[in-house]
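Appendix B, Record 12. Input sequence as logged:
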Amino acid sequence: MDSDAEEARLAALRSYQVLDRPRPATLDALTGLAAVLFETPLSAVSLIDRDRQWFAGSTGLADRQTPLSVSFCVHTLTDKQLLVVPDARLDHRFSAYPNVREGPRIRFYAGAPIVDEDGFALGALCVVDDRPRDPSDRLLDQLTALAGQAAGHLALIRSRLRLADLGDELARAEQREEDLVASITHELRTPVTSIQGYLELLADSGDPGLAAEFMEPIQRNGDRLVAVVNHLIAGTRSDATALPVVLAPMDLGAIADAATRACASLAEAHGVTLRLTDGEPVPLEADAALLTRAVEQLVRNAVLFTPPGGHVTVDVPGGPVAGVTVTDDGVGVPPDELPYVFDRFYRGRYAREQAVPGVGLGLALARQLVGAHGGELHLTSSGGVTTAGLVLPAATPDGSRRPRR
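Logged structural output:
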């Protein structure tokens, strides 16, 4: 079997998730039935891994696995045919095996290949005896049928796993929909309610002097409303729709500085220390507005998820690769949430429980903006430290850093 075919077979085997796990009762039952039919002391559902055979079902066997060097079942993989060995002492393929020469002194072996619905040979259902045997064709047909049932039970096991995964994903999708509705409702209703309140006060008072006093909060909440709508529009742009990027020579440090300054008031309001480290100029060609917005999203996200007294650091390390890192010592991201942080509208447990502002589009939008520059965005979180880092294409010979096309 060539290496590519073997890797595909192994991938199929592992998709059933039965290796190194408790034996399924249904497979144990099949081996028990096979042992009764053949009147043998030993029977097994043997799954062939890269360098071992794992007994996913067994009767009379003390071992959970054995190396392939003593496996009879591995010989069923190549042609996917029934293998019958009446007396292993007389078969040159097996006569030198230690399990033939010594305990358990295998003499008779019969194994029917377990072939899944995709045509992959996973192993064999076998019966073993310590005395020579010459079974009838009728018995061997039954062994083949039992091997087919083993393949069917494995398929059911995998189907249940996939349904469980689908159920989890559906539950997550439903939760995200509920969170999205609640978040958008809050983000839109708050400024609208505020604007309505000020307008009602003006209408009830009839005092023209109040107009000037109320103009600033009305305008501020109006701007917030527009910003939320623009954020939703930008964040829901299809990945297949290219962002219009206008490139010009820029200093990445200046972009990081602008993004940090834009979040300074937010950090101050949250009692978070926000700092931009000094660094050497990092020239590149970029759309300043879009890239600044991407970094701003990372900084804003870090600030919102850092409790009062915490720290957020923005760093432009320089070197051969243009990049920005935003590090915080905030609440962190649980390991089970890390795969979803860049999904649109995803809000983790902390965001929901603490009513952190936003609709779950910040990181998704940042990744889209960085991707439009040919770069990549990553986020890690462990040991109380969360780091979001964007990396842009390496420098070209003339010293500029140009997005990949």
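The chain has ten helices and 13 strands.
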